[in-house]
Fold this protein.
Amino acid sequence: MEPIDIVRLEEAVVVFYRSTSQEQAHLHEWLTKVQLSAQAWQFSWQLMQLGKSQEAQFFGAITLHSKLMKFWHEVPAENRDELKQKILETIIQFAGGPKLVLNRLCIALSAYIVHMLNDWPTAIEDVINTFQNQQIPNVTKEMQLWIMLEVLQAIPEEMQAIYTSVKRSTLRGEVAKRAPLVMETTETYLQIQLDREWDADAYGNMTKAVKCASTWVKNIGFSIENCQNITALLLKMVNKCYWPCVQDPDGDGCMSADENDLAEVCLKTLLYIIIQPDCHLYPITASILIKMFLDSLCDITKMEWKPDNNNEDIVSSIYTLFVSAVERHSTLLLTGITTSDPELSSLCSRLVNEILQCTDKPGIYPVEESCSSMALGFWYLLQDEVFAIAYEAERFKCWEYIRPLYAHLTRILVRKAEQPDENSIDKWTSDDLETFRCYRQDISDTFMYCYEVLRNDILDILSTVLDETIAQLQTNPTLWTKLEACIYAFQSVAEHFDGDETKQIPKLMRVLNEIPYEKMNEKLLGTALETVGSYCQWLKDNPIYIPSAIQLLVRGLSSPMSAQATLGLKELCRDCQLQMKPYAEFLLNECQAALTSGQMKNSDCVRLMFSIGKLMSLLTSDKIPSYLDIIVSPCFEELTAICQAETKTPQARIRTIFRLNMISTLFSSLNTDLDDDDQIEDLQNVQPVLIVMQKTMPIFRRIAELWVEELDVLETACSALKHAIVNLKSSFKPMLQDLCYFIVAIFQTRCCAPTLEISKTAIVIFYKDEGCKSLMQRLLVEFVSHSFKLFESTPENGFSNIAETIEMFYACLLQIVKKIPQSLDDKAIAYDRLIFYALKAMTLPENGPIRTSIQFLSHFVMQSRNYPQMTVAVLTAGEEILKTAVVCVACVTPRQQVEKFADIFLSVNKKYPAELAIWLRNIMLQSPNFPTNLVDEAEKSRFITQIIREKVNKRLLQQHITEFAIKARGLSDKFQ
């Protein structure tokens, strides 16, 4: 072709675009030849120079695009980078318009990108980064976004249209690799827009963004497994287009052209998503999306279901979407129907649908809505019923049907678990907050039911929600509630996952440590801290994540969420103690700093001492004393000061209990004798708790003297000493004498449950030690004699007032008679009184004394044949024991407790069978109306026979006792 005159060409272009169709036909052939010529690479740029007519500029742009699309082979490899720069520069040149030219240039860049995917693999990323991050000076943010969307939208179409030597399937595969990035980019933008007010200018880019997503889904495909977020966004946009106009009291209820266009393209995109060629491979996700459609759009169709509706276009598009979805997923629809009755099937499907909508009720419960809580129980019932189906095929069908429902439900529950934000919390009363707390616990339980259906897939769903939330937070850091709710969901299912899960939980751990908590509501940090604690078993198997967990927990110690931090740290130190060894000193220093800060509540300080004990146990013996001095000494210093001042004010009492609780908690966890192969060094050294006890035992005695009338103080002091004994075991022996002085000092003033329990603990642990036996025997005698003094001083009708002490007394004796029965073979112990008060306890209305006294007597009888004095005691009191037991069964003891007496009858029958027969006949048959006048002689004889016959079968004996109790109480008619 001869050289082209640029002036003539420009004139021809202007004439072409401004002339009639007949003149255009004549010019079209020539202009087409011009475009096909090699010279087009040059004149296209000349036509796009500033100052040229808009027609010329447009023709230059479409020529460039045509050349890129059809004649890429004409571009030398060494000139391709220059071509890219030229295209970009020209795009920037036309950023101010005309848009017609700019649009074609953007499409030209898209064609260039498709050709260059191998040589410029980051092309799409670079375009997004350049325009989304506004790196082009003197071009508005909205225009840069417009350019980016134009380029991205054109790529799938150019992929199908360009002339290339690359196989179309290969090219399609390369483009498809970029689909997630493009979809994420459009999703992020749309999410931002959803959170804003829309003006007339906003619709253009929003429509373009949706069209971009639509084009990629339609021409490239985007697995519907990854389309839940874009679907949710598009449905929200449809609703935002629709409802403001129809609800405007000053409007005509008709959507504007912009609203209509945006809603229509949104619905068309949804259609492309749900009818993709391979979407039948993902029935679960497809059903989730279809359900999302119904939930979001049914109200619109209902609102518009009227004559002369104002928004026929959107209704039409919605029904098109519904129909297309049903057609494409007819198999899924049939799978969801588990019955041959079509009406029942329809009813069940609609019921499930309605309940799902109820669960998804907009607003926060209970202030903004009040019905969603009533649906939560259904989700337990549904999965429970499905898994209870006997026939495997039917069960499997049902399970397949409910999976998408529960996947959708999981996402709904994350939203419903969101707490009120700072803008709405003022509307909440304390009752509202408590109701919501219970509601969130119900949601947590429902997450567990979702796990039962979804298993490990629930982590993938929650991970997707987490990604969405983080994306939102990057643009609006105040939207913390969804992130908190998502983390709460992860926490709810934590117990189901062990160390083998290595995909989503590591991601969660990284996210928890990267959140800028200082910029967000403190509740978010609290939930994150609790979640770390809930995954401690997982951390034990994945110790590489422990440092980040520690970092977060330490951060929480100095925050208003210290309670959650101490809880999380306690769980970490308990479950992962050995794995914590490298971080023990660092954590101890942080714990000490937290304790001295004065910012933590007393309960948090007490809880933190557990972790301190576990961490201190990991240190070598030479390092422990300094930490004991720093952390524990302040406790004893304050206790000493209170005792010296003999201050008995309420505040002093509270501080005493607080400090004793700290010490008690430390004693429960501080033990350097770790039961593991990876034991720490210097195990032969003295246990640190013993070092503390040796220095502080006098303080315990002074506390007992000062606070002997305050049961809660004594209980706390005894608890501390008990933990020390249990912890140290044989190492505690040097302190036994002081402990006995402490106990007896309290006994001399009062006998109470805490002192009884610590006495029993010491006796059981040390009695078998020959060096301690004598001391423990004396302590046991004191234990019994001081208890008797209390019982003797109690009025006949006042034993219920000391029921707790009686219960503890016989509970302790039960342990003693089971583990060291020889200790009771002592003339100083009055067996008659021991049995007498046990029988007294059996007749009380309180369950505790009944239970422990029966168990003690049963074991006492079982052991008695081995010790002559105990044998005499049973032979002497045997008849009275049985008489009391029969009376209790017949009319005294609450009916729900009568089965417990089977233990007494069995033990006597095993060790004293001959005596049992005589005793029972003497008791039952010599008194006409014994135990009540409602049982005759035949019934009593039958009961005696049943008792004597059953020497082993406890269950059958309990049945006989229950039947006798019913007869003796005149309840036979009621239970027939």
Remarks:
- Residues 516-619 form one domain.
- The chain is about 70% helix and 0% strand.
- The two ends are 112 Å apart (CA to CA).
